[in-house]
Design goal:
The structure is a homodimer of 105-residue chains.
Chain A: H1 3-13, H2 16-28, E1 33-34, H3 35-42, H4 46-58, E2 62-67, E3 70-75, H5 77-91, H6 96-101
Antiparallel strand pairs in A: 1-3, 2-3
Helix pairs in contact in A: 2-3, 3-4
The structure holds a DNA duplex (30 and 30 nucleotides).
Chain lengths: 105, 105
DNA sequence: ATCTTATTTCAAGAGCTGTTGAAATGAAAG
DNA sequence: CTTTCATTTCAACAGCTCTTGAAATAAGAT
């Protein structure tokens, strides 16, 4: 991935409302949540919520689908995964020192 | 990590010059590089380079040390590691689906 | 002391980002 | 077909970010 594309994805994650949306949707699981419920959960107005949901789904972090009156959003792990892979493999060349800094498993 | 702190770290990564600095310093290894050499490598003016180096070292992505006339910068993997851990464990609750999206090892 | 090299700091300006509240759109219910 | 509910879109605005070029600081060489 070129630096410009990775930078654009990191910019989307550089906002705490948007990180809170991701947390809420990870918790919600495969059923996802409606825009209204997400807004209520993160404590943001409808237009503010919509602004952030748009930034997230435009860049592939979320997928949306209309369900009668509601718009239902759910997480798409592929984009986050691509970003983690970019950091570890592309940017840091698979550094074992970095791997030791990630407390996983 | 709270969302605000993670967002601030992601913001630092949301610029392609800064990602290029990280790439250059990963490549340079433990000896690091001087500010001037970094600037030449990424093709940025001295003040522009300094601006980005400051953003990176202020937030712990880099460490700096004066070596006579030069300021030598080297990568600190801990901050990137903390961010990857945040994404995988904190934000995405260790999701195995996410783990499968990260092409590693 | 003065000069040169390396780097940072500063002020100005252009452009981007996020918030607000109001208006528009979309879909179902009465 | 009007009302209600859910959500997005829009315009305005404040604040932040990045770039530029010039001036300041820091350190070593002459």
């Amino acid at each position: 991935m070129v630096s410009e594309d990775a930078a654009a994805l990191f910019r989307v994650l550089s906002n705490s409302d948007r990180l809170d949306v991701i947390r809420a949707l990870v918790e919600a699981g495969p059923d996802g949540m409606s825009a209204g419920d997400i807004g209520r959960k993160i404590g943001a107005s409808p237009s503010r919520t919509s602004f952030h949901l748009n930034a997230l789904s435009e860049t592939g972090f979320l997928q949306k689908e209309r369900q009668s009156r509601n718009l239902n959003y759910r997480i798409n792990f592929k984009t986050i995964g691509a970003l983690i892979t970019f950091l570890m493999e592309d940017c840091c060349k698979g550094s074992s020192e970095l791997r030791n800094c990630c407390t996983m498993r």
